[in-house]
Design a protein that fits this description.
β16 and β17 form a beta hairpin. The longest helix is centred in the middle third of the chain and has 20 residues. α6 crosses α7 and α6 packs antiparallel against α12. By secondary structure, the chain is an alpha/beta fold. It has 13 helices and 17 strands. The strands form three sheets. The protein has an eight-stranded mixed β-sheet with strand order 3-2-1-4-5-6-16-17, with helices on both faces. A seven-stranded mixed β-sheet has the order 11-10-9-12-13-15-14. The chain is 32% helix and 16% strand. The structure holds nicotinamide-adenine-dinucleotide (NAD). It catalyses: NAD(+) + NADPH + H(+)(in) = NADH + NADP(+) + H(+)(out). It is a multi-pass membrane protein. Keywords: Cell inner membrane, Cell membrane, Membrane, NAD, NADP, Nucleotide-binding, Oxidoreductase, Plasmid, Translocase, Transmembrane, Transmembrane helix.
Length: 381
């Protein structure tokens, strides 16, 4: 069978779903690999690098789609891309079925089998395919780099002949995958780092990475808002008030805020309010990784960098992984080839779409003309 990767058509998207290295692995699984001309260019992979790895470079996207038994891409397909898909063909990409009902119906109606990388169950066995985590890791790292390039000072404290420099104070709100990556990056650059999450179980992880967990003065010292499956639920009004009061108290001292707080199925909670931005020092920076879901900061404008009246830069970019396209493509392509590996038990270049496998079942959103989303809960953890 053949696996084909087209160029991403979403404006500004620089990632690619197949790298020369992942193609070598896919060939060992028995597949022929095809890529559209120039598809890897923005991620740093030339057509010649693909050819050297045994990949066939195809000029015409229609011919590429027609040739592939499996299409591997990054972004959810545009309707024009779904139109290329054929009955029985398999598409592997991000899909976000809960937000893309019409797209789901379109894919169902043309009979393609869709594997959504964002629906891979977050269980230990599937970590190698967990593209949400690999992209969130990059976003957390890049958020700190972006903050640093907009912050006119060092992260680390210094004593120099030209004067004493205090370390930057960084607050990370939300310590999931992206938040923990941001903590690791900020502390390794020498910042004094604080982090807050509604899930009390992350306190240990935060502290093990060198940051200080921000506790609230709340009955029995428990954070509030942990839900099942390691995700957050909305906080109670009393807890939220305590949380906002704490942030208000910290705002004048904090140089950089990185917000990553998300609650499944809901708009991002507003946690860094306009008055907190107004209380920050000029030159401070807020990076809002929740911008795509409405933002954690009142001043966030998705995809833009704005400067508040008191000189605080608020960054709402929604394309952090694409801003590190080489790294993001390497990790995403690895996630994809692990998914293909699980779909190819005999390593003979033949897809076996086993709906009894929890991971494959969980990620499959259309199959044989049926919508198979949402999946039943996984049997194993
Ligand atoms: P996410 O992107 O859904 O949310 C980011 C963080 O925001 C979470 O830590 C959440 O608790 C926090 N948050 C929500 N509301 C908040 C508020 N009001 N104030 C402060 N913080 C708030 O989370 P994620 O990064 O996708 O991770 C979700 C969970 O999945 C975590 O427990 C993570 O460890 C787990 N996970 C498990 C695996 C696995 O293979 N076992 C893999 C990846 C992630």
């Amino acid at each position: 069978m053949k696996i084909a990767t087209p160029s991403e058509v979403f404006g500004g998207e620089a990632r690619v779903a197949m790298t020369p290295d992942s193609a070598l692995h896919l060939q060992k699984l028995g597949y022929e690999c095809l890529i559209e001309t120039g598809a890897g260019k923005l991620a740093g992979y030339s057509d010649d690098a693909y050819r050297a790895a045994g990949v066939k470079v195809v000029e015409d996207p229609s011919a590429l789609y027609a040739a592939g038994d499996v299409i591997a891409k990054v972004r959810p397909p545009e309707p024009s891309e779904v139109a290329h898909l054929l009955p029985g063909q398999t598409l592997i990409s991000f899909f976000y079925p809960a937000q893309n009902n019409e797209l789901l119906e379109l894919a169902r109606s043309n009979g393609a089998n869709i594997i959504a990388m964002d629906m891979v169950p977050r269980i230990s066995r599937a970590q190698k395919m967990d593209a949400l985590s690999s992209m969130a890791n990059i976003a957390g790292y890049r958020a700190v780099i972006e903050a640093g390039s907009n912050f006119g000072r060092f992260f680390t404290g210094q004593v120099t002949a030209a004067g004493k420099v205090p370390p930057a104070k960084v607050l990370i709100i939300g310590a999931g995958v992206a938040g923990l990556a941001a903590i690791g990056t900020a502390t390794s650059l020498g910042a004094v780092t604080y982090a807050f999450d509604v899930r009390p179980e992350v306190a240990e992880q935060i502290e093990s990475m060198g940051a200080e967990f921000v506790y609230l003065d709340f009955p029995d010292q428990q954070q509030d808002g942990a839900a099942t499956g390691g995700y957050a639920a909305p906080s109670s009004p009393e807890f939220r008030e305590k949380q906002l009061a704490k942030f208000r108290e910290m705002a004048p001292e904090i140089d950089i805020v990185i917000t990553t707080a998300l609650i499944p199925g809901r708009a991002a909670p507003k946690l860094w309010l306009a008055d907190m931005v107004a209380a920050m020092k000029p030159g401070s920076v807020v990076v809002d990784l929740a911008a795509e879901r409405g933002g954690n900061c009142d001043l966030t404008v998705p995809d833009q960098k704005v400067v508040s009246a008191n000189g605080v830069t608020v960054i709402g970019y929604t394309d952090f992984p694409s801003r590190m396209a080489a790294q993001a493509s390497t990790l995403y392509a690895t996630n994809v080839r692990h998914m293909v590996s699980d779909l190819t038990p005999a390593k003979d270049g033949v897809i076996v779409h086993n709906m009894d496998d929890d991971v494959i079942r969980g990620a499959t959103v259309t199959k044989d003309g049926e919508i198979t989303y949402p999946p039943p809960p996984p049997k194993i953890q």
